[in-house]
Specification:
The protein is of the alpha+beta class. It folds into four domains: 164 residues, no CATH class; 158 residues, Alpha-Beta Plaits; 163 residues, no CATH class; 212 residues, no CATH class. It has 27 helices and 13 strands. The strands form four sheets. Strands 1, 2, 9, 10 and 11 form a five-stranded antiparallel beta sheet that branches. The protein has a four-stranded antiparallel beta sheet with strand order 4-7-3-8, with helices on both faces. Strand 5 and strand 6 form a beta hairpin. The radius of gyration is 42 Å and the shape is flat.
Length: 848
Amino acid sequence: MSSLFRSEEMCLNQLFLQVEAGYCCIAELGELGLVQFRDLNVNTNSFQRRYVNEVRRCEGMERILRFLQSEMETDKIEIRTPEKPPKTPLPREMIDLETVLEKLEGELQEVNRNQQTLKQNFLELTELKHLLKKTQDFFEAEANLPDDFFNEDTSSLLELRTVPSAAAAGKLGFTAGVIGRERMATFERLLWRVCRGNIYMKYSELDTSLEDPITKEEVKKNVFIIFYQGDQLKQKIKKICDGFKATVYPCPESQSERRDMASDVNTRIEDLNTVITQTESHRQRVLLEAAQNLYSWGIKVKKMKAVYHVMNLCNIDVTQQCVIAEIWYPVADKERIKRALQLGMERSGSTINPILTNISTKLEPPTFNRTNKFTAGFQNIVDAYGVANYREMNPTPYTIITFPFLFAVMFGDCGHGAVMLGFGLWMVLNERNLLASKSNNEIWNTFFGGRYLILLMGVFSIYTGFIYNDCFSKSFDIFGSSWRVRPMFTNGSWNTKLLHEGIQLQLDPAVPGVYSGNPYPFGIDPIWNIAKNKLTFLNSYKMKMSVVMGITQMVFGVIISLLNHIHFKRHINIILQFVPEIIFILCLFGYLVFMVIFKWCTYNVYNSQKAPSILIHFINMFLFNYNDPTNAPLYGHQQEVQTFLVIFALIAVPWMLLIKPFILRANHLKSQRMLQSSPLHEDQTEMIDVENAQGNHTKGAAHEEHGGHDHGGGHGEHGEGFDFGDVFVHQAIHTIEYCLGCISNTASYLRLWALSLAHAQLSEVLWSMVMHFGLSSAGWGGLIGVFIIFAAFAVLTVAILLVMEGLSAFLHALRLHWVEFQNKFYSGTGQMFSPFSFQRILDGTDVD
C-alpha cells in the first residue's frame, strides 16, 4: 500500500544464466512480469544480434497464423479460446510447431489454388452455357435462319443492319462472348466507331449473378454476338474484345452442334459442382482442425518471439556458456524473482543455479507504482502528465478524491449525476463480461478503462447536486423554505387576492417571532430557484467557494513538497524553499480564505447590509490604505494584522530568491578547498560533494525539484563544475514562477465557479425551452406530445449536458490537477518501469 503514496524501491542486479537455461528462465520472468531488462547491446545493429534468426522464424510463423486467421474469418469459422493460456514452448518445440504451420499453410494454399482453378472453370462453363442459350434464342427469333445462312449472299443482312454495299457478297462470320455489364455501353460505342457501322451486334443480360473466383464478389455480365464480314473486321473485333477483357467463346454455326455443345457443357458443370463441393469440404475440415489450436499457437509464437527479443538484449560471455543480463526489479519482489529463476532452471534441466549480484550505479531507477483495477485509471491520469521521479510523492491517492470532487463542483446536478452513476455502475457490475468481449473501439475502451472514475464522478455529482439543491434545473423542497413573506400591511396579513393582482412580495429571512429565519438544514434553500436575484446570490456563493477550495488544494500541494524534501534529505530546501513558499501563500491567500470564512461566520440576515467588501479590503491591504470610509473594518486591529502579513510575505520573496544560491556557492567553494588540501580518493571526494548537495542518493533525485528542476544542479556532481550564474537564474525563475503562479493559479480555480454556473444555466434553458413546453400543453395532444418532447429532452440532455459538458468539466478538472496542484511538488520527469511481461504483450499494452 505504501507504493501508492511513493513509488516502489527498485534494485539493479546483474543476472548470470547458463546458455541452456537462459531461455526457460527468461520465459518464467515473462510469466511473472516484474523484471525490466536493460539493453546491453545498444551499439549493435538489430540484424546483427545473436538470436535474430529465431526472431525471424517466429515472425514467419506469425505470418502463417495471420493467413490462417484471415481464411477462417472469410469462412466465418469460430476460433476456440482455451480457458488457460499455454506455457512458453521449449526451444526444441519450435521446430515441431514451425513444421505443423508450414504444412498447414502449404496444404491450404494448394486447396485454394485448386478451388480457384475449379471455380474459374465453372465460371467459364456457366458463361458458355448462358451464351449458347442466348445465341440459340437469337437465331430462333431472327426468322428461323437456315444452317447454310453463313454461306449465302449477305445482301439480306441489310434487313438487320446497314452494310457498305448492297451488292456485297461472301462468307458472313460472327463472334460471341461475355463482357462485364458496366463496360457494355462503351464497348458497343467503340465497336460502332472502329468498324464504321459495318457490323451487327445483339446483346442480352445474364439473368443470374456470377461469382468472381479471385475477388469472390458478385459480377453482372452480358452476352453479346457480333456479325461481321471479312477477316479485317474480325481482327478489329478481336482486339477490342481483348482490350475490354471480354471473354470470347467458340460457338458452332449449326443448331445441332450448339445443342450438343450445350449438353456437354451441362454435364461438365455437374461434374465440376461435385468436385468443388468435395474441395470445399476438405478445406473446411483443414480450417476447423486448425481453429482448435490457432489461439494457442498464436500465444506460443508471441511468447517465443518475446523471449528471443529479450535474449538479444543480453550479452554472451567469451566462453559462449553464460548469458549476462542487467535487470531492474522491485526490492519487495526479490524472492518471487528467485523462485521464478529456480523454476526456469528446473524446467530446462540445468544444474547450475542462476546468480543475482547487486550493481552500484548512478542511473536513475525506473518508477513503479503498483496499482489495481480501481487505482489504475487514476494513475493513468497522473502518468499522462509525466511519470514521477524515482521515489517522488505520487499524487494518485489524493487524486482519487480530489479529481471527482472538483469535477462534481463544476457538474453539480443530482439528475445528471444519477445518470452518470448508473452508467459507471453498469460497467463495474458487468466488467467481466465486458472484458471478455474485447472491443477495438478506442472511445469505448477509454470509457471502460475509467469506469471507477466515472462511478466516483457520478457519486460526487449527486452530493454536490444536493448541496446546490439542483436536479435537472429544479430544486427539492425537503425541509421547507426558511424564508417568509415580509408583512406589508398594517394588519400584517395577505390573501390570494394580492397574488392575483401581481404585487411583488418581498421575502425576508429575518422575520421576528415564530419565523426566525433559521438556515436551510442542508444545501441551498429551494426558494432561490424562483428568485429574481438567483444569479447574484449564486455568483457570490460559488465564486468564494471556488477560491477557498483552490487555495486549500494549493497549500496542500506545498505541504506535500515538504514530504519530498524530508524523504530525499534536502534540508537546505526545507529552510530556504518550503518555509518561504508556505509563508508567502498563507500570508496573502491563506488570509483571503480567512476573511471569506470570517465574514460568513460574523454577518447574518440582521446585519448583512453592513458587511464590508472583501475584495476592497484585499486590494487596500497591498496599498496600505486603511482610510476608506465606504468599507468598514472586518474586525479590530485589522490594520496591524494585515501590515504584518504583507511585510512578512514580502520578506519571503528575497528569502526564497537569494539565500539558497549563495549557500550552494559557499558549499561548493568549501568542497574545492577540501579537495585541494587533502589527497582524498576521487570516490571519497564525490561522496563529500553529494553530501553537500543535501544527500541526493541518485542523479535523478539530485535534479528533482518542484517545477521539474534542481536549481542547484551541478553543484554536487564531481567534475561537473559549479556555475553560480546558472544556479541563480534557475532560482530566480522558480521564485517568479511560484509567486506569480500563486496569483494565476488562484484565478484559475474560478473555472469551478464559471463551469458550475454554465452547467446550471444550460440545464435551466433546456428545461424551459423543451420539457416545460411539453408539460404546459393540455388535452390528448399534449399527452401524446409529451412523449415526443421527453425523448428530445433526454437526447439533448445526454448529448449536451452529459457528454459535452461532462467532457468540458473533466478537462478543466484535469488542468487544475496537472497545472495548479501538481506543479507545487511533482516533477514528472521520471522513467516508467516497463517490465518484460507476457500478459502485457498479449493484451497489447506493452510499449515495445
